[in-house]
Every structure is written in C-alpha cells, then in structure tokens.
Amino acid sequence: MANVPETRLNLVLTGLVASDEQSKAAAIIEYQGKQETYGIGDIIIGTRANLEQVLMDRVLIKQSGRLETLMLDGFDYNQPAKKIANKPAAKRNKTKIGPQSSRSGVVDQRSNKQLTATAKSLRAEFSQDPAKIGDYLRISPKRKDGKIIGYTLRPGKKPEFFKLAGLKAGDVAVEMNGFDLIAPTPAMQAMAEMRQARDISLLVNRQGNLTEILISLD
After folding, report:
1. Regarding predicted confidence, which is higher, 185 or 132?
2. Is the same domain home to 56 and 109?
3. Beta strands in the chain (DSSP E)
4. Is the residue at 94 inside a domain?
5. To the nearest whole percent, how much of the chain has pLDDT over 90?
6. Which of 6, 64, 155, 188 is a Cys-bridge partner for 159, taking CB atoms 3.0 to 4.6 Å apart?
7. How far apart are alpha carbons 80 and 102 in whole angstroms?
8. Mean pLDDT of 177-200
9. Are 114 and 196 in a shared domain?
10. Where residue 51 sits, what CATH number does that domain have?
C-alpha cells in the first residue's frame, strides 16, 4: 500500500472494523465536524470519494478513479500497512487505572429486559451492516498530551441504547469485554466482539471515576 498516496481531503478516520469479508468492514469518518459510519462502496458525505478498502490502520478511498490513503487518527502513514487479522487487534490486557482515576463501582444492567432487547437489535443490525453502529453510538478518540487515553462516546440518531445503558455524553470508554482501548487501537475493532459475546462489559471513565457497565445480549 506504500504506493497509494495520502488523501488531501479534509477527512478524519476515527474508527474502523477491518475484515476479510467486505460486508463486515466499516469505517467512521469525520468531515467538517460531523461523523458518519460507512461500509464498502459508500460515498463519503461532502466528497466525491467512496470507501474502497478497510485495513487495520487505514482505509483506501477512491476519488476520480484514483486510490488514496486515509490513515486512522493517530497512526503514521510512513509505517507499513497492518494486515487484517482474523481476531481483533486489541490485546486482552487489564486496563491500567491512572492515578487520577478510581473505580466508582459496577452498574449491572443484565436484568434490564428493555436494554437487552435494544442491545440485541443493535447487534443484529451491526452483524448485517457494521456501518449501523453509527446510528447508536458516536465514537471519537480522546487524547491527553497527544496520546489516546480512550474513546469518547455520544448518542447517535437512535439514542435508546445509549440512554437505557446509563451512558452519559462525554463518557470515555477505556475497556470493552477485556479489550484494552487505551492503546492506539481502533475502538470499532473491539466492537466486533459483539457478534459472539453474550454480555457486554464496558468500562468508562466518567470525570475521573471508572464505572463498569454490564449489559446482557442473551
């Protein structure tokens, strides 16, 4: 991919799901402050380019018949392209709690039947079309001193899941189902775990306090 030049379009790639199966690949791209989720072949709003291919650390877009590279926010174009792995790239490491953070407890929502039904609907849509995740969640990297410390969550145009889960706009996800999101790894890659998971364990930093939210998908 070294011969595919970086795009000059004013776009920010904030998250992705890389997969050998094109129907399961998706990318979260921001344009002029507005974030949208795209599947392969989709036209990127505000441009004439379409999403051509999703890799582990970048996507290829096609504009006027020419391929261009859009790097995942925080990754270096000059580094070799990361190959697609069958399993999520994020490592199952225990999340390191910073000195200014403390666990404020666990919110167990697994008996919330309305939330479970909404989460199952989300998973069904996500499994069919990964781009649908953007309808429920807006995800963007959270940085401190230039380093990614998690991913800020905000409700999408279907806020039911967000509200029922007890999430608050501005919550910063740092771990999901054991996947450490503090490393510069696509948050969307961890979301792919939802296809097989029976439960979601989401650890969020809320104004310095870490809260684990448990949601049933079964």
Report:
1. 132
2. no
3. 11-17, 26-31, 34-39, 50-54, 58-63, 66-71, 102-108, 137-144, 147-155, 172-176, 179-180, 199-206, 209-216
4. no
5. 38
6. 155
7. 37
8. 70
9. yes
10. 2.30.30.830
Amino acid (1-letter code) at residue 29: I
The three state secondary structure string of 67-126 is EEEEEECCCCCCCCCCCCCCCCCCCCCCCCCCCCCEEEEEEECCCCHHHHHHHHHHHHHH
Residue 168 has pLDDT above 80, yes or no: yes
| 64: helix, strand or coil | coil
Q: What pLDDT shows up at residue 94?
A: 41
Q: Which of 21, 55, 71 is the last residue of a domain?
A: 71
pLDDT number for residue 143: 80
3-state secondary structure at position 128? helix
Decide if pLDDT at 137 tops 50. yes
Amino acid identity for residue 199 in this structure: D
172 and 110 in a single domain? The answer is yes
Q: Report pLDDT for 46.
A: 93
Instruction: Give the domain range for residue 150.
Output: 102-216
Q: Which of the pair, 193 or 143, is modelled with greater confidence? A: 143
Number of domains in the chain: 2
Nearest alpha carbon to residue 101 among 39, 50, 175: 175
Give how far Cα 36 sits from Cα of 15, 60, 132, 158, Å.
10, 16, 10, 13
